[in-house]
Amino acid sequence: MTLEKHGSCLCGETHLHATVDNTNISACHCSMCRKWTGGPLLVVHCSQPPVVEGRAPSVYDSSDWAQRGFCGRCGTHLYYRLKANDFYAVPVGLLDGDEAWEFDLQIFVEEKPAWYCFANQTTELTGQQAFEQLSD
Description:
The protein is mostly beta strands. It has helices at residues 31-37, 127-135; strands at 3-8, 14-20, 24-28, 41-46, 51-54, 58-61, 66-70, 77-82, 87-91, 102-107, 123-125. The strands form two sheets. It has an eight-stranded mixed beta sheet with strand order 6-7-8-9-4-3-10-11. A three-stranded antiparallel beta sheet has the order 1-2-5, with no helix packed on it.
């Protein structure tokens, strides 16, 4: 079940239209995501690139395998992209409207600091396990 979702950055100059694969939310606890967001990155998955209108996103190659897109004016995080298979993860807070989202996955759990935890029961994967699943 895919959903058509829309969102915009804080300044309103960048608009994003995303086809979301399902209503599941995942959290990434890797050190780069935590540095980028100040905490875990909470995202929905998109198997198609989001369509961006207005101001083109600034893109940062955060590793050999991934890019992070953001608004160059206000800094709002727009997406995380795996280069190899064009997998996109869009921050759930960017999207307009309320969905019956289900938080069901945490990745890079070996890098999660001890000072926070979620009450939800989720699938928990190490970084290696997450990359193995995404490459299938």
